[in-house]
Design a protein that fits this description.
This protein has about 300 residues and is α/β, with parallel strands linked by helices. The chain is about 40% helix and about 20% strand. It is built from eleven helices and eight strands. The radius of gyration is 19 Å and the shape is globular. The structure holds S-adenosylmethionine (SAM).
């Protein structure tokens, strides 16, 4: 990161939480949209650092693939020079509506062009982009190697791809009882398998380098970012963690015995003794992996 960037105050997240909540309530956006928006607000400074670290000098044509609520598109527009264009692409018109709003609220919103598009058939000529960013989306796409090949096609030689993903086993590190944690992660794995989802995709963070290589990116590098917080959590960090834990509880409920479920409830329910959200001595770590490669 350049010293001038380090000294400047990072812009906050441009996503409008009320717009996201309304879209979730009316069923237009998935349940997890509020959790993701809280994540962007809670870790805005660190997430922008990831963008700065990955940003290649002299990038002008920039793609935020599967842009979702547009938080990254707006931050990319803030980093980009005045003559750059940030393309925010998503397959969902409902996400694009939120992203368009976020881009308009960003300082340099004029540079963002929101477009409906499919990751497998991008509306760009061969070798036309300088930088592609793709956050927490590759895991959800049916053929991640095919998507990476499509990104290889649209990047110019020397252009850069950066993918942010997580690994469900190691995404949120909490000071819970180790035995409970093991049972919970086992139950999470069983829940993924039971829902006939491809369970492996939730652990994609550990596989990214191999996927890059299969798609033709010969040399890649990985940086893991640890966001450390101390309890008692407040604000967006608390909102994010509470939504995360609630979703984890709902997913795993059917795969835990009564005793373990009760222990989990005590750990995640505000006001109950031992609740991690209220614990002033809780150390909480969130991990994100960014794998990047030059074309
Ligand atoms: C988990 S969200 C992540 C959004 C955003 N990148 C972020 O980090 O907040 C996954 C996104 O992928 C988009 N998506 C799913 N399939 C897609 C496809 N085939 N082409 C483009 N976007 C797609 C969804 O609409 C959704 O916005």
């Amino acid at each position: 990161m350049s010293p001038s960037i380090l000294n400047s105050v990072p812009p906050a997240c441009a996503v409008n939480p009320r717009q996201v909540r309304a879209a979730v309530s009316s069923g237009r956006l998935p349940e997890y949209a509020e959790m993701l928006a809280a994540y962007h607000r809670a870790f805005a400074a660190e997430l922008q650092t990831m963008l700065f670290d990955a940003w290649p000098a002299a990038a002008r044509q920039v793609l935020d693939l599967a842009c979702g609520d547009g938080a990254y598109s707006a931050w990319l527009a803030d980093i980009a020079p005045a003559n750059a264009t940030v393309w925010a692409i998503d397959v969902s018109p409902d996400w694009l509506r939120v992203a368009t709003h976020s881009a308009a609220r960003a300082e340099a919103g004029r540079q963002v062009v929101a477009l409906a598009g499919d990751a497998l058939r991008l509306p760009f000529a061969n070798e036309s982009l300088d930088f592609v960013w793709c956050a927490q989306s590759l895991y959800s796409l049916p053929d991640s190697v095919a998507v990476l090949r499509e990104l290889h096609r649209v990047l110019r030689p020397g252009g850069r791809l950066a993918v942010l993903e997580d690994d469900s086993l190691h995404q949120v590190l909490l000071p819970w009882n180790a035995e409970l944690e093991l049972k919970l992660r086992q139950a999470e794995w069983a829940a993924h398998r039971d829902a006939r989802r491809s369970a492996d995709r939730y652990y994609i963070g550990r596989e990214l380098g191999r996927l890059f290589a299969k798609a033709g990116f010969c040399s890649w590098s990985k940086r893991t970012y640890a966001m450390n917080r101390q309890g008692p959590l407040a604000g967006d960090e608390r909102v994010f963690l509470q939504l995360y834990l609630q979703a984890l509880r709902d997913d795993t409920e059917a795969f835990l015995d009564r005793r373990d479920l009760a222990a989990l409830e005590r750990f995640i329910t505000p006001g109950s003794p031992g609740c991690v959200l209220d614990d002033p001595h809780a150390a909480v770590t969130f991990l994100d992996h960014v794998v990047s490669a030059a074309r």
